[in-house]
Amino acid sequence: MGRDIKRSRLLVLTLVVITFTLITIDYRTGRATSGPRGWLHSAVGAVEDGVTTVVRPIGRTASSLLHPNRYQNRADQLEQENAELRRQLADRDEITRLAEDLSDLRLLADRGQYTIIPARVIAVGDVSGTDWTVTINAGSDDGVTVDKVVLNSAGLVGTVESVTSNTATVRLACDPRSRIGARLEGTQLLGAVSGGSGPNTLTFTLYDASYRIQEGERLVTFGSLDYVAGVPIGEVTRVTEVGGLSRTAEVKPYASVGTLDLVGVVVGGPPADPGDRVLPPRTPPADGQPAPPAGTPEQGTAAAPPTAGAG
Questions:
Q1: Which residue, 93, 101, 155, 188, has fewest beta-carbon neighbours within 10 Å?
Q2: How far apart are CA 138 and CA 121, in angstroms?
Q3: Residue 300: predicted pLDDT
């Protein structure tokens, strides 16, 4: 035990002597970073850097364990900022889309010289196949009344069935109970369209049985006391009956029920029948040949009945 104490004292004394010796040498030479002390500092510094490299990650891990909420709060903040940016981008895209839809709706209204009240679909009614209605965010306070034609940028959507001060219920053209006066493009041949076998099919009934309907013929609304004329309805896809006192055909509507959003309620008609000018331009066939002409009456040109409209 006594020997260990003596050895410890000797070691301490030796280190003290070395320290004072190095201080004396640095003072006399004026070089604290060279010579024996500089060499010793370099050696000790290398060891210190190595220890720091090993210990630093451990310190960070310990810090994260001691302060777990610091990093979680930062992650939550970044997630909120990302969500806000995504919402702003979505809002910007929505505004751009609505602006484009409104512009297209205005163009169609201008071609027909219709006065419209823009509105958006805010609810879908019972679409069980026997009742097809939607609710729009415009009502009597905006000038909407019952039986007015509703359209979008593609064409006929339906007619107003009921109105409140701020909303209106629109019966879609594809509803089986809907019946709207129609006219074949390029003729004065009249009939009516009603709901067909689904949301993407209408049934057209032609009043004059002497006319042979052809696929590809197009329909517009026929003007009456309630309905404005010239609103595009759709295109004949199949003739379903050729006998009896009338002919019927399936029609694909221009307006898609599944994508209804922005619509316009026609509250004012044109000073004169717009004819067929509101219809979209025909797309030429793929082979470059002109589109086939409309059907030809079997017994001359049929005269228009005196009135037609909603049944």
A1: 93
A2: 9
A3: 39
